[in-house]
Amino acid sequence: MLPEIALTSQIIRRLQKHFGGYIGIYHSKFSQNERVEIWNKVKTGELKIVLGARSSVFLPFRHLGLIICDEEHDTSYKQHDPAPRYNGRDAAIYFASLFGAKTILGSATPSLESYHNAVSGKYGLVELLQRYGDVHLPPIEIIDTKKIAQKDKAKVMLSPPLIDSVNEVLARQKQVILFQNRRGYTPYQVCNVCGWIPQCKYCDVSLTYHKVSNKLICHYCGTTYAPLQTCAACGNHNFVQRNFGTEKIEELLLEQFPNAKVARMDIDTVRGKNAHDVLIQQFEQRRIDILVGTQMVVKGLDFDNVDLVGILDADGLLSFADFRVNERAFQLMEQVSGRAGRKEATGKVVIQTIQPFHPVLKLVKDHDFKKLYDEEIDKRRQFFYPPFSRLIHVTFKHKIKEVVEKAALFFAGGLKLKYGHYLVGPAEPIINRIRNQHLMEMLVKLPRDTKFIAQCKKDMLEQVAVLHQHKSFKSVTVVNNVDVV
Ligand SMILES: [Zn+2]
Ligand SMILES: [Zn+2]
């Protein structure tokens, strides 16, 4: 199992060399027909190995002996929408247990939950303390972009030290990966007189400008808008571009390195079924010198000619309002770093940030997962977060703000007596409207007591029914997301 379909193409070529026709691939980008074919071949036992995304746990295996769940920490294992909102990794562990089969979870940056299970003896722990081919982890250089003067106080995209490093690596015929966790051209266009930011009509979200398509796009609902020339609030004609996405960086790279072959990898460039594979093969064959991309370039890919990895905006990773922010930021940066210098000890990682002394950056610099674990696990214990509790995230949706607010309060009110101690909220989320539906959220933090959790589940489902019997709340959507990641 792999968290992303994107990863299957590179790994399948390697596995097929060894296992030939015994191995099949299964994921959602395949057509219904292709999926039926795999389903049948698993059922008859013709396929001995399946490489797939999370949904492959639903194939009709009859003699399952082993599940290997690679990059187990990856949040893509969790399905968010629509239901079933399961986690492929957790489902795999349970599924394997039905066959008395083993599960191997693999990761260089394990999730806190899994690592906690390993050190507390629930899981076995095997540590690979030497990298394949004895490659050293790349040194990490942190660049303080606050110290670099920019006109308009614009954000630094490519700092002079990073540019020097790219030039040096290109001169040696080596390749570069640059990571930026935002797609599009400029995530924010801001009126330079009044500060107005164009927003989606249907979502409480600012629009991202995409230059290639010359459109403003909402990344939540996909609605596209013509680009704006005039501020809707004050009539001024000047917008400043705040922040930057992969598309803008691609443009800048073409300017800065006119002789290099530059390519971009994000969901906008890999829409077709094979587009992603083509990009990866081109990069493998060294027909691309600099690859800029979102998370997609981070995950598990293995290129042996990459000598420089740049993380362009570490601050974007360190600023999420979520209790897992440090864990996630560490995982992403450490995974990106792992793309540099995999075969020869010449790789380097450059991280651009305005907070060079952030504790997570120090841990990334030292590649110190264990220290991250020790620090984070204490906080989780203290604030009763997973792995010490289990979370149920409840979202209420309705087209009228007042209705959804009342419904959320009504729902929580019914559970308060019994579970008041475990409820957080309800409250309005930071993004409080998507696709014209107003949102309210509530978090239920439950102790890891199977009986207690089963009872709570029953009570919550009953409360959903009670809510829907109430005539003003009939059309309120309630989404329960268990073990939200
Ligand atoms: Zn929208
Ligand atoms: Zn304005």
> The biggest beta sheet, please?
6 strands, parallel
Radius of gyration over C-alpha positions, nearest whole angstrom? 24 Å
CATH level-3 fold name of the domain at 5-106: Rossmann fold
Report the end-to-end length measured between terminal Cα atoms. 18 Å
User: Proportion of β residues?
Assistant: 15-25%
Under the CATH scheme, the architecture of the domain at 5-106 is 3-Layer(aba) Sandwich
- Helix/strand-derived category reads alpha/beta
> In CATH's first tier, which class of the domain at 5-106 applies?
Alpha Beta
Question: How does the overall form come out from the CA principal axes?
Answer: globular
Corresponding CATH superfamily of the domain at 5-106: P-loop containing nucleotide triphosphate hydrolases
**Strands side by side in the biggest sheet:** 5-15-14-6-13-12
Report the average pLDDT across residues.
89
Number of DSSP helices?
13
Annotation, overall tally of beta strands: 20
Q: Can you walk me through this structure?
A:
With 485 residues, this protein is α/β, with parallel strands linked by helices. Among the domains are: 5-106, Rossmann fold; 389-482, Ribosomal protein S10 (Alpha-Beta Plaits, 2-Layer Sandwich). It has 13 helices and 20 strands. The chain has helices at 5-19, 32-44, 88-98, 112-119, 160-171, 246-256, 275-284, 314-318, 325-337, 359-365, 369-382, 401-419, 450-469; strands spanning 23-26, 49-52, 66-70, 102-106, 140-144, 175-179, 188-191, 208-210, 215-217, 224-225, 239-242, 262-265, 290-293, 306-311, 348-353, 389-398, 423-427, 433-434, 437-447, 477-482. Strand 3 (66-70), helix 3 and strand 4 form a beta-alpha-beta unit. The two termini are 18 Å apart. The relative contact order is 0.11. The structure holds zinc ion (2 copies). Residues 200, 202-203, 205, 218, 220-221, 223 line the site of one zinc ion.
